[in-house]
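Can't paste images in this forum, so I'm doing it all in text. The chain is below; anyone willing to post the predicted structure tokens underneath?
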Amino acid sequence: MCEPKTKSSKRVVPIPKPLAPLIEDHISQFCKDRKPDTMLFHSPMLDEWLLPPTTIERTFRMAREKIGRPDITFHSLRATHATMLVLEGGTMRETMDDLGHTSLTVAVDSYQRIVREHHRDAVELLAYQYMPTDDPTVIRTVIDQKERQIDKLRREVDGLRKILQEKS
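Text version of the structure:
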């Protein structure tokens, strides 16, 4: 296996708990050499551990077509990760570390996207920090924003409960 192009290319990133059993199943099914540094995706027909770029591109293209999203690229997956990480409370430093960037400019300009609704809500909350809390208009605005957050969380919880019921 060749060395990565930069030191930041080789890094440790957290694995979400729900993903861990899927990775373990994949390893036991497809990775004969179950060492900690085993490549998760490798060529079963070649002695080489690394998949040729053409194989990766072809497999990714077939997956995109299967889900009806031929527009998705590896770059768009990175951009989505960066944006969602920040929206869920991740810091720019954590985002930069995940993407392997040392420059804030590259991380923001290349990968982070503006989500208009989130931006509007953030501005509303920021205004609340600077305006008098006894102003009824400000209080109503903050209540509306908080209720939207609660509604979003309830929908997420309901979706998770539905998945649990289907699994039972």
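The chain has a mean pLDDT of 81. Helices lie at 20-30, 53-66, 74-87, 92-99, 104-111, 116-130, 136-167.
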